[in-house]
Design goal:
Layout: H1 12-21, E1 25-34, E2 37-45, H2 52-70, E3 75-80, E4 101-106, E5 111-120, E6 124-129, E7 132-137, E8 141-146
Parallel strand pairs: 2-3
Antiparallel strand pairs: 1-2, 4-5, 4-8, 5-6, 6-7
Helix pairs in contact: 1-2
Length: 150
């Protein structure tokens, strides 16, 4: 699994402080232009979960910021929650899900390992499992997802 630092993701550094100021974490930000329209997908997470009202609140805050940054008013902005079974696309997401249960495909054992994220850094994630603490380098993770339990 690849670790991409959030500050390397286009426009993330511009939007993340705004989202964090509202009490949420910006899990994913995808910005691309198709013909004349900008398409933005933002995935947010919150300590108490994320509902429609939360997504609306973040959408209303992000829209003017993105219009200013992209110098356009022709855009489609979608704000969503990560969902119960989110597939983690970037190893940097582990730090946003500390305390949450995940399933990780460990290439060393060719099987899923389930545990609660207790720590993560630029090199590895530490899971609390039934067998104790397991530190797993991102290079040994083929895929990972939230396990859907709280």
């Amino acid at each position: 699994m690849e670790f991409v630092a959030p500050d390397k993701i286009p426009y993330y550094s511009d939007c993340e402080p705004l989202v964090q100021g509202l009490g949420y974490s910006l899990v994913e930000l995808v910005v691309f232009k198709r013909q004349a329209t900008w398409h933005i997908k933002a995935v947010i997470s919150g300590a108490e979960g994320v509902g429609i009202a939360d997504c609306t609140r973040v959408h209303r805050a992000l829209l003017p910021r993105l219009e200013a940054i992209l110098s356009s008013q022709d855009m489609y902005v979608e704000v969503t929650s990560p969902g119960l079974d989110r597939v983690l696309k970037n190893a940097a997401e582990f730090s946003l899900f500390v305390g949450k249960q995940v399933k990780v495909w460990n290439t060393d054992i060719s099987d899923w390992e389930t545990g609660t994220v207790s720590a993560s850094d630029g090199e590895s994630v530490t899971l609390t499992t039934d067998k104790g603490e397991v530190r797993m380098p991102y290079s040994k993770i083929a895929k990972a997802k939230l396990s859907g339990t709280r």
